[in-house]
Design a protein that fits this description.
- This protein has eleven helices and 15 strands.
- With about 325 residues, it is of the alpha/beta class.
- Strands 3, 4, 5, 6, 7, 14 and 15 form a seven-stranded mixed beta sheet that branches. Strands 10-9-8-11-12-13 form a six-stranded parallel beta sheet, sandwiched between helices.
- The longest helix is centred in the last third of the chain and has 15 residues.
- It is globular and about 60 Å long.
- The chain starts with a strand and ends in an 8-residue tail after the last strand.
């Protein structure tokens, strides 16, 4: 089968190569063998292959974090051969073995491409806004990098919860995408006065909740409301911020971290709660996965990763993997 295999830490996605390797062994008890139909691409995929991510798998490894596909072999009663599923695992390969706990049935009427980017992206945004920030209807929610994968999910979820959404992005094209997917107001964070613009659209109140996957916490404190909550999702701009504590003190601001992947270890009982809520939103049509206009292939995954890194893409970047028949 074809797969991308990493045998040493790389400088970047341009060094990735597709190889022909053996099919995975028989799945162990509790595992599924899945034919990958589509893979979701993330910024952390680049950190992973560079050895800069918090999880450092032993060499050689297949990178990739999200997939959708068809069950080829099952060792658990919950899933049967032929089931359409999505989940998390080493997705840059035509066939993967994954623990069944990391897989869910695909929502009805979703394509493989739509489902490929669900497993990490949407629960990250939902758990941040609901579990951590306790976003309420009528509150102002400021979403940075709102046209990106987790950003566009946050825009959609905040709207579905009844919030007033202010989206930031770095270009007119991306602002238009955020508006298309539900943002009430859009602001270019390259404008020097973007924090003043936030204050203006909120009539001086400021943002009750700030969703920040970029690293704009310090600047965001200037336009955060009294008792505001700033969600620290990631550091896509490349540097980890040092936050002046006096900014938080003066306005009763809470800076709140979110590490969705760690819920498996630390709060596993919250995971079904998040997924049940998300599936209700998927089934109701209130959440429709937003995809980047270009769908990549296994061979062109490095181009897709570069598009994310260069901030040239928007929404969720996905790649078709393997052939599109139901079996290899």
């Amino acid at each position: 089968m074809k797969a991308i295999v990493v045998e040493k830490w790389l400088k970047g996605p341009e060094e990735l190569r597709v190889s022909n390797i053996e099919l995975p062994a028989e799945p162990k008890k509790g595992e599924l063998q899945i034919q990958v139909k589509a893979a979701g691409l993330n910024f952390f995929d680049t950190l992973m292959i560079q050895g800069k991510y918090q999880i450092k798998p032993p060499f050689p490894f297949v990178p990739g974090g999200e997939f959708s596909g068809i069950v080829l072999k099952s060792t658990v009663p919950k899933f049967k051969v032929g089931d359409r599923v999505f989940g998390s695992g080493s997705s840059f390969a035509e066939v993967v073995n994954v623990n069944a706990s990391m897989v869910l049935p695909m929502p009805r009427n979703f394509s493989f491409e739509q489902a490929a980017g669900l497993f990490i992206t949407y629960p990250t945004s939902y758990s941040a806004l609901v579990l951590r920030a306790q976003l309420k209807a009528g509150e102002y929610c400021l979403v940075h990098a709102a046209a990106g994968g987790v950003g566009i999910a946050a825009v959609q979820i905040a709207k579905a919860l009844g919030a007033i959404v202010i989206a930031t992005a770095g270009s007119e094209e991306k602002l238009a995408i955020a508006k298309k997917f539900g943002a009430d107001y859009v602001i270019n964070y390259r404008d020097k006065d973007w924090t003043e613009q936030v204050k203006k659209v909120t009539n001086g109140h400021g943002a009750d909740v700030v969703y920040d996957p970029v690293g704009l916490v310090e600047q965001s404190t200037k336009c955060t409301a009294w008792n505001g909550r700033i969600l620290i999702i990631g550091f896509a701009q490349g540097t980890i911020e040092k936050i002046p504590a006096n900014r938080l003190l003066l306005k009763n601001i809470s800076a709140v971290g979110l590490h969705w992947g760690a819920y498996t270890k630390n709060e596993p009982e919250r995971i079904p709660e998040v997924w049940n809520a998300l599936f209700q939103l998927f089934e109701s049509g209130k959440l429709q996965p937003a995809l980047y206009e270009k769908i990549y292939t296994l061979d062109t995954i490095p181009e897709g990763m570069k598009a994310i890194n260069d901030r040239a893409s928007y929404a969720k970047v996905v790649a078709k993997v393997g052939n599109q028949d139901s079996r290899l």
